[in-house]
Design brief:
about 150 residues; alpha+beta; Aminopeptidase; eight-stranded mixed sheet; about 20% helix
């Protein structure tokens, strides 16, 4: 199995570089630290190459006001892939590994705010979305996307 097909649990600190460079270039590094990063229920997944994280995502136990979850709703945040590794399936590996972990925890929902440019990626992975597009300051247009796990 290729190393690129193996997502591993990583620390919150290991997610900051990609979050900063890919998701918030030129913005304050403080914006890349989420208040929930170090909660005991939060987990971070990453894929590395030569000791460097090249793709990662953070999974935070958090409800969504429009989605009535009965058991352990989770939110995906900070999903990012190094540009030279994009469109090679690494993001899918992170999402699928996260879904496996969530199912083992008994979660029934994964949701997130997806950049509209990434909507087709998540749709191919079986996620649905709300029709409304909204803007996140300094980042751009987003849609709420979600997947029921049971």
């Amino acid at each position: 199995m290729s190393v690129f097909n193996q997502a591993q649990k990583i620390s919150a600190a290991q997610t900051i570089d990609l979050r900063s460079r890919i998701l918030r270039p030129g913005q304050s590094i403080e914006l890349c630290h989420y208040p929930e990063d170090n909660f005991s229920s939060t987990f971070h997944l990453g894929i590395s190459s030569s000791g460097k994280i090249i793709c990662n995502g953070t999974f935070i136990q958090q409800a969504h006001e429009k989605l009535n979850s009965a058991a352990l709703p989770y939110r995906l945040r900070g999903m990012a892939t190094e540009p030279i590794y994009q469109k090679q399936g690494l993001g899918s590996v992170i999402v699928y590994a996260g879904l496996q972990e969530l199912e083992a925890l008994g979660s029934d929902l994964l949701w997130f705010n997806a950049r509209t440019t990434a909507e087709s990626f998540y749709t191919k992975l079986g996620f649905d979305s709300f029709a409304e597009i909204f803007d996140i300051a300094l980042i751009g247009p987003h849609k709420i996307m979600y997947k029921w796990l049971r």
